[in-house]
Amino acid sequence: METKRDDWVRYFRAENQPIEAMHAYFRTHRYHPHSHDTYSFGVTERGVQAFRCRGAERASVSGMVIAFNPDDPHDGHAGDAPGFVYRIVHVGPAFVARIFGDALQGGSRQGLPLFRDPVFSDARAEQALSRMFACLFDGGTELERDERLADAILALSQRAGVTRELRTVRESSAARVARAVRAELEDRFASDIDLEALAQSVGCSRYAMYRAFVARYGMAPSDYQRQCRLRAARRLLREGGSLAQAAVQSGFADQSHLTRWFARYFGITPGMYRRSGER
């Protein structure tokens, strides 16, 4: 456990599966706007957790469930002075898609399910998630962990909407620009690139490029590039790299710069993340 003033965090990371979880109390910490490349399912245990997601202000109080789709931009902070306690699990899309495919279409449905609401009340889902968190943080076996995770995902299945691959919506020119900018940022995340060069790479003006990207992904290109760097640093740390190596190879100026932004995006330090694998 590590503290920031009176905030505290516990972190779980599976070594052989795309599963990570956090149990935290935050009174002072504020998340910088970000998204995950995973599904994220959480339960607020105490207090009020406030955040902005999908263009609206949200609040999760005790017993409510949070469900973020991959790439859902959001922030987060205490909704009142006492702060809040919550648990959240991040699960790889392939794992979630497989469980939902079994639940929704007898194994025949393909694609990634999308959750309609980022926060909601559902007693069955909340109880299933709480049982899963107890297993993750209190020493359950790997078999118990997988069973309870599957049970939690199945309990959430009624909240799933259309699948991402099956939607038939024509992509606009602005969406194509945003997607091209995203690909450029992901390819060159560790390099310095200015707004003009980025706009030229996708063949439009700086203003049109910036507006299209923010509309599609809910954050500025600079924030997305930093997020790519942080995801790369997480991967390097999972693979056993040092903090100094992760900072340099992911494009940060130094280790302190990585540490500062890592905590603002993920709520923990990179050192704690590196030590959070199963023991």
Automatic annotation (TrEMBL):
InterPro entries: AraC-bd, AraC_XylS_family_regulators, Homeodomain-like_sf, HTH-like, HTH_AraC, HTH_AraC-typ_CS. Residues 179-276 form the HTH araC/xylS-type domain. Pfam families: AraC_binding, HTH_18. Keywords: Activator, DNA-binding, Transcription, Transcription regulation. SUPFAM superfamilies: Homeodomain-like, Regulatory protein AraC. It comes from the Bacteria. The keyword Acetylation does not apply. Coiled coil: none annotated. This is AraC family transcriptional regulator. It comes from Pendulispora albinea. The lineage of its organism: Bacteria, Pseudomonadati, Myxococcota, Myxococcia, Myxococcales.
